[in-house]
Structures are given as C-alpha cells and as structure tokens.
Amino acid sequence: MTFAKRHYPVIVVGGGQAGLSTSYLLRQRNIDHLVLEKEQAFHAWKEQRWDSFCLVTPNWQCRLPDHPYDGDDPHGFMVKEDIVAWMERFRAAFDPPLIEGITVRAVRALPVGGYRLDTDRGPLTADQVVMAVSSYHRPKIPGYARRLPARIKQVDASAYRNPEALPEGAVLVVGTGQSGCQIAEDLHLAGRRVHLAVGPAPRVSRFYRGRDVVDWLDDMGHYRIPVQDHLTEEQVRAKANHYVTGRDGGRDIDLRRFALEGMRLHGRLETVEAGQARFGDDLGKNLDQADATNARIKNSIDDYIARQGIDAPTEPPYEPVWEPPRGLDRELDLEAEGIAAVIWCIGYAPDFSWIEAPAFDATGYPKHRRGVTASPGLYFLGLPWLHTWGSGRIYAIAEDAEYLANRIEAARLPLREQYLAGIA
C-alpha cells in the first residue's frame, strides 16, 4: 500500500494489536486514517519471542475488538504460532489501511494544530495521531556487560530463540521477571546448565483451590482496577510482572524446585570484573518475598471465597522445598563454570525522543490520562497500566482503543490547507 495523499485526519503509528484495534474502531466510525508500521504487522509476536513462547494468561483473556479468542481451549495457553494466526485473522477480517516497512523518524506538533510525521518515504500530516508503539524500545543492559569476556555470547530476551541457538556450555540468565524465568526454564528443560541471577520479581501460583488464579482474580475485579486507584502510576509501572507459565497446560514456576533439580541460583547480579561475576547477598530475601506475594494473593482468594460462600477445595500452605545454603559464594568464575552465554532479562527502557510535543514528564515518559495527552490530538495506546492492569496486554486493548476512538471522533479537526501547501 502507498500513500493516497499526504494528509490524513488520523494517523496511527504502530501495526501491532493496539494499532490495528484502533484502526478497526476508526473504520467503524468512518474516520479516514492510515496505519504506519516500521516492520510488519505483529512484528514483536513474530520476531521477538522465543520458539517455545506461550501465553501466561489463559486464552479467554485474548480479545480484540469484535474478535475474542475463537479456539476450543479457552482455559489453555496459546503458543506463538497460534497467537500470530489469531491476530492475522483479526487483520484479515477488515483489511486495515496499513503500510508496512515504513519508518517514522519524527513526529512534531505544529503551531497551527495537528502533527507532521517525517518518514523515510517523505512527510505526512495528520490532525490527530495515535502512538501505538508500546514502551519496550531498548533492552536494559548494564554498563559492566562490556567487561564480559568476548567469547561469551550476549543476547537480550527478545533475541533469544532456543537452547540450540546458543553456544555449547553453561548459560547465565539475568533477571527473574516473566521472560527471565521462562527462558531459564526453557534452557533447564533442555538439559542446559543454567545459572539464574534472581531479582525481586514476585511470583504467583498457576492454579489454586480448583481454578486458575487468573480466573479468581478476574472474578474479584482485580484486573479492572484503574491505575489511579493504586499507589501511584509511576510505582505501578515500575513493578515487575509475577512469574508463572502457561507451558504444557500451565504450572507454577518455583525457582526453589529448579535449584533442587540442579539450576544454580544467585542473588541479583551486581557487577562483572576480571572474569568474575559478583552477586548480591539477597537471594534468600528475594525468594522469600516472591513466596510472600504468592501467599498474599492466595489469602485474598481465600477471603473472596469465604465472603461469596463458594464451595472450593482447600489447599495446604506452600512449604519451601529449598533454601540457599549458608555462606553461598557470591562470586562466579565465568571461565571455570564454562559460561558460554548471558541472556539479559532485566527489562526495557522507553525511547520517545523522536516525538516533539508537550506530552512528556521530566523522565521523557508520556504524561497522559487514559492515553489522552495535554497535546491536543496526540494519544498513546498499549502502554503498561495506561488505564488498568490489562492495558499493556491483549486483555484490555479493545476497551482502551474504544475509549480513544470515541475521543478522536469527538475531537475531529477540519483540514488546514494553509499548512498543507508546504509539503503536498
């Protein structure tokens, strides 16, 4: 698809589930628009997930506008190929005005209103712009990573594919959010020697008292709590996701059990110097805190069951199956341990420096209320905790996109020929 013109009432930047959900709803409202995607639609799902990737939330939580999960296993967990196929069916259902392989280099608010988008195929303008580009732009790699021996292969979570793609030898996985724990599990199940630097991420059980924990929490309204009802938006955004897995029908990720099975657990990685990795003295604390979070979630479910008078089976409290040994060595000789690869799983940093508009806080993060910024006609969709827990996930994209589509429809601006002449 090529440009039919150089100005559109609305331009959506990003061709993932957020961008195409917006497109679907704009088309429903007969609002002329264009969607621009740097790579291809659903690129992150296709190219930035490992081979064994699967959802950690049940399939029934997958819903795009007028396109809920359409398979026969609502309480299962789709693998990567199934997720992509489901999304491609959504795309095919309405054939969005999407241009793939186009880079938006800059977005600038114009003095007379509207926005100019500089692309590698020339400039465009729009009255309103929706930024559907997530906030996971640059992997967080610490400066001391440069001091790792050159022979050690380094990748971040988005570049990991499978154990066979890594050089032979042991692997150090850094970080225990969802990606770090699942990648460590993938390597562990493949028989690789795994060292895991354990951070403060919390964990949650897969099933409790006869149901998936996600089912209980959804019934309790947990996923519909607006961000402003939590401590602060910044604090909520900074929290790591609870680790659990949907692999093989879903199960807990218990790092203590991995340790019993031979995985080497360490505290948070602090630095690398002269071929030695040094870890913090916080392994026990991090494991205990993760278990405590899991216990609090279970207690809240117990309270809900009691209040509602629900007949549900009981379960004994979790008992730790492994404890870090006293005097655990906090240093690891990378050569002696045969570390051949390091996988960085400590998160991603946003980069919105290419957007010039009064819509950001002092850190450069979008300042908004449910995706609506102070810069008229500039919106964000798909950010973590844009409105609720589900905003950065498939679960609430349709709801958030509906809200913004209504705002866009109400704020439609007339064309301004005076600023089009210079770029037409």
Main attributes of the structure:
single chain, 10 helices, alpha/beta, 21% strand, FAD/NAD-bd_sf, 2 domains, disordered C terminus, 8-stranded mixed beta sheet, FAD/NAD(P)-binding domain, 424 residues, flavin adenine dinucleotide binding, oxidoreductase, 5-stranded parallel beta sheet, 25% helix
Task: Summarize the structure in words.
- The chain is built from 10 helices and 24 strands.
- The strands form 7 sheets. Strands 1, 2, 5, 6, 7, 8, 21 and 24 form an 8-stranded mixed β-sheet that branches. A 5-stranded parallel β-sheet has the order 10-19-11-12-15. It has a 3-stranded antiparallel β-sheet with strand order 16-17-18, with no helix packed on it.
- The model is unreliable at 415-424 (pLDDT under 50).
- Helices cover 25% and strands 21% of the residues.
- By secondary structure, it is an alpha/beta fold.
- The chain has 2 domains: 7-137 and 350-420, FAD/NAD(P)-binding domain; 142-344, FAD/NAD(P)-binding domain.
- GO terms for molecular function: flavin adenine dinucleotide binding; monooxygenase activity.
- InterPro entries: Auxin_biosynth/cation_transpt (IPR050982), CHP04046_FMN-dependent (IPR024000), FAD/NAD-bd_sf (IPR036188).
- It comes from Alloalcanivorax marinus.
- Keywords: Oxidoreductase.
- This is MSMEG_0569 family flavin-dependent oxidoreductase.
